[in-house]
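Task: fold both queries, return tokens.
Query 1:
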Amino acid sequence: RQVNDEFHILANSWRYNQQFSSKLFFAFVDYDDSSDVFTMLDINSVPLIVHYPARGKPKKQDTFDLNKVAFSAEMMARWISERTDVAIRIFRPPSYS
């Protein structure tokens, strides 16, 4: 659940960013709805966050390691910036709790 929430915060932060462009896309695929996508991409475990470069195939460093770093939208944004030179400022929704 935390991965899903943080991923959506990241994607929405990009979508509503002034620098938004078609240079970067976010996709969320649910296994129950699209198992063929998992087969096609040879994905055996989830959650998994992968950067697919514009040219070529993903390299090992194109997979965000959920086990080695503290997981947050901010950490994913930093990782994306390292891979793409696209900076994403994270906007968190207000907490009503």
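Query 1 returned. Query 2:
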Amino acid sequence: MKHIRLRLTPDEETIHPLFTMVTSREFIDGARMVDWNVSDTDQPRLLFAIEGDRDAVRTELASMDAIDDFEVTPVGENQLFLHVWPEPTPVSRALFELYQREDLMIVHPIEYIGDSAYVSILGDSATLQRILDRFGSGLGVTIERIGGFPTGREAILARLSPRQREAVELGIELGYYRHPREATHEDIADRMGCAPNTVTAHLQKAEAKLLAALME
């Protein structure tokens, strides 16, 4: 089997409002699809792990006509599991049908970073090519990597929300982690376009996750 990592950026005609919510709403700091059941392609069931405002998530989902039902389960401060039953779009239904029909594996989780989803797929060359041919345009597919398998480093970094990862990367770039320090939270905040106390929160959460992963 071969491994391919794809970036998916759906266009306005194919995007589902659920995708828009997890990729572009300020009340969500990070989202991953950690499991799914698409045995019924007309009624898929998706499970997300989300960092963000639970009440805002509930309010937005309740306003979506394209959501049949959902359950929000708090699991910690600003953390939740979202079990959701979305109405599939024609493209997503075709994708679910392909997933059932073809000999392929999707590596958990699917990560949502910026305006895109990142997914790793295992399959033979012919199957992977059929996926690219069928969905390349409507899903805005960009090939990030071909060959090899997901690394432990990627799995650890996937625990960070996009803003947490951005804060850490800027901290490294600006010299925040050098000794003596060459940058402050204010410097990072200027680059991120947010308040210094927000940077403090992002760095503290990111550092806690990274250290916990190293100690496992």
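Both queries returned. Flag for query 2: The chain has two domains: 2-150, 156-215.
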